[in-house]
Structure formats: C-alpha cells, structure tokens
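hiii so um. not sure if this is the right channel but i have a protein structure encoded as tokens and i wanna go backwards to a sequence. like what aa goes where. can anyone help
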C-alpha cells in the first residue's frame, strides 16, 4: 500500500512597520536547547541584518556566505555545516535564512539535512525570494553547473515578509523578482499580469507580493511534491533553467535567474503559439508586454544544440524529452508538453537573435 505523507503548509507572516511577530513566534517554538542562528550573505549582512536585529531582543550568531548564484553550491553548505558544528547547534536549533533566493534555497537545504533536519525560518529580502523562492518548501543547491540538482522538499517553520528590505535592493534585482510575478499572472490570473505590467518593478506593492504568494501557495498546497499540477509553476523555466545554466558556465556577467526566466517565458509563449495551443494575436500581445523587461541575449548557432541538451536535465522531465509547461491562454497552463527538437532549436534562435 502506498504511504501518504501528511503535508503541512507553512504560515506566512506579513510584518508591519515597527511591529514584528518574530520574537513571539520564536519564543513559542523554542525548547530548552534551542539556539537561533542567522544565515546571511555578505550583502544581506550589510543591508538587512540591522533591520532583523531590531526585531528580536537577542544577539543572534550569524553565519555569512558569499553572495551570488555561483556560491549556491555544496562548498557553501560545507561552510554552513562547519559553523553549525562550531556553534554547537542542536537538533532543536532554528536557522533564520535572511537573504534572497540563494540564501533561502541553500539555507533550507543545509538545515533540512543537518542532524537529519533542523527547523528553519525564511526571512526573504529580495523581491524574487519574497514573491516566490521562500514559498513552497523547495530547497536546493546547484551541482556541476546544473541548477538546483541537489535538494529536498522541506517546508520552513514559517516565512516572514517585510517589504522594508526592498529599499536597498538594486533595480536589476527588482526586475529579476518581477519576472516570477509576471509568471504568476500568466499561469493564474490575466488581470494580475496586466496590473503588474502597468505598475512595473519599481512600483510593486505589498498587496501584489501577497497575491503572488497566494497564487504560488494555492498551487503548492494542491501538489506539494510536484507529482503533476505544481508543474504549472515551471512555465518559462524549462528554457529558463537551461539558459541560466549555460550562462553560468559561459558568461562573465551571467544572466540572473529571473532574467533567464523572462527569456524562457518569451520562448515558451512562442512554443505555445507554434504548438497551436495559443492563438497568434494572444501570444503576440503577451510577448509585447514582457519585451520591455526581457534582456538582450545572443544565442549562437554553435551553442543552440548544447542549450537544448541542458533541458534534458530538467527534473520535471518524463523520459528523455523536455516536458514543457505551455499556455493555452493566461490562466490556462498545460503541463507535460513535448515539442519537436527542431521547433525548440528554431525558438531558441528566435529569442536569441
Ligand atoms: N525554491 C524555489 O521555489 C525558488 C523559486 C524561484 C527562485 N529560486 C531560486 O532563487 C535564486 C534567485 O534568488 P534571488 O534573485 O533573490 O538571488 P540572490 O539570493 O542571489 O539575491 C540577489 C542579490 O541581491 C542581494 N540582496 C538580497 N536582498 C537584498 C537587499 N534587501 N538589499 C540589497 N541587496 C540584497 C543578494 O546579496 C544578491 O547579491 C535562484 O537560485 C533560484 O533558483 C528558488
């Protein structure tokens, strides 16, 4: 008989200025030997730690890792585990991941296997992490140039959202997070997509972040372990992850995750049109909206086969074909779509002109 795993969705707390719920939450979840430890990167130590410190009366030990996707790897995990040992962290310790998607994914993973799993709280500080990465319980690191190839499904104890952190986030990083929000609109609610496009990344409101969190949470609750319906969140990501991996391998200033996802959304809208799932006028209209935020990225004929082959490593594939999530219409995604190889190559060359 198949065993079912009970799924407990994590709570999300929205912080209001000057009023934090963190202290009472931690007190409620503390045991005798609970140590609360902060994980941050060098930027969030500088820009975000002072605000976090105002939220609790305690002086919390901090583990610092170097910022950036290139450090989202087992080497950084090694450092985290080493320092958890140095701090004599127990199984009842709680790790607060204070940072963007890299700190949340890596910290979540490191915590999920340390002493067979310690509890962790996500305190996301980038738009990407607030609206997407901190939500839903996927943890992981990159390995051998492949994105998120080592990881676990482990839910955080809670996620705390404070949009005050966004004040120090650079514009490029705002566009980066905005891309996943556009995706939420495209897969779930057309009016939200247009509302976002009208506002732009600088004018994202706390309500918009809350809506993205609600869209993602409602999808994750239906299918926490990504057996099927959660794959709708993969829209833009089959191409996006392949481009991100390729760019990490080859570029001096690699594409950010959200930039690669925007290129992926562009490609997967084109594929939706080519597969005759979406009518042309609809696809062209949506493409013109995202065009303004999509980076220029040249894809050479010589590289296109390699990029297409990177799609074969996507964890959501079935068998030896990339399994795309495509759209019939905004709000109507279809999962597990197989596109002919020539169509994929043609589309990559089209977006990389
Ligand atoms: N687990 C998931 O479901 C999920 C979903 C989407 C993305 N992700 C992952 O998230 C990662 C991308 O996240 P990201 O875009 O936040 O990247 P990131 O964590 O690298 O953060 C971006 C940069 O902004 C800095 N930063 C963060 N907050 C700041 C602040 N408030 N002020 C100033 N600087 C700040 C960081 O130090 C970093 O240099 C990718 O690895 C991606 O795979 C995971």
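sure thing!! here u go:
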């Amino acid at each position: 008989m198949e065993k079912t795993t009970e799924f407990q969705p994590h709570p999300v707390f929205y912080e209001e200025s000057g009023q934090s719920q963190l202290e009472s939450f931690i007190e409620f979840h503390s045991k005798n030997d609970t140590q609360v430890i902060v994980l941050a990167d060098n930027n969030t130590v500088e820009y975000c730690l002072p605000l976090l410190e105002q939220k609790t009366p305690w002086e919390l030990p901090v583990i610092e890792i170097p910022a950036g996707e290139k450090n989202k790897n087992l080497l950084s995990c090694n450092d985290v585990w080493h320092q958890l040992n140095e701090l004599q962290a127990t199984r009842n310790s709680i790790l607060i991941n204070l940072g963007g998607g890299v700190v949340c994914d890596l910290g979540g993973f490191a915590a999920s296997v340390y002493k067979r799993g310690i509890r962790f709280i996500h305190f996301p500080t980038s738009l990407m992490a607030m609206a997407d990465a901190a939500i839903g319980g996927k943890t992981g690191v990159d390995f051998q140039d492949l994105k998120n190839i080592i990881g676990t499904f482990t839910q955080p104890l809670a996620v705390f959202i404070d949009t005050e952190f966004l004040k120090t986030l650079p514009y490029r990083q705002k566009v980066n997070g905005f891309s996943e929000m556009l995706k939420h609109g495209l897969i779930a609610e057309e009016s939200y997509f247009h509302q976002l496009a009208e506002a732009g990344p600088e004018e994202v409101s706390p309500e918009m972040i809350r809506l993205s969190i609600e869209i993602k949470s409602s999808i994750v609750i239906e299918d926490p372990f990504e057996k099927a319906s959660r794959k709708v969140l993969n829209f833009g990501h089959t191409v996006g992850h392949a481009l991100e991996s390729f760019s990490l391998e080859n570029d001096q200033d690699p594409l950010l995750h959200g930039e690669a996802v925007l290129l992926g959304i562009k490609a997967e809208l084109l594929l939706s049109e080519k597969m005759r799932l979406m009518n042309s006028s609809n696809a062209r209209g949506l493409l013109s909206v995202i065009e303004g935020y999509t980076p220029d990225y040249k894809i050479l004929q010589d590289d296109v086969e390699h990029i297409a082959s990177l799609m074969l490593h996507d964890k959501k594939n079935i068998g030896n074909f990339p399994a795309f999530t495509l759209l019939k219409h905004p709000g109507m995604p279809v999962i597990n779509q197989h596109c002919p190889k020539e169509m994929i190559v043609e589309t990559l060359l089209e977006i990389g002109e």
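oh and The radius of gyration is 20 Å.
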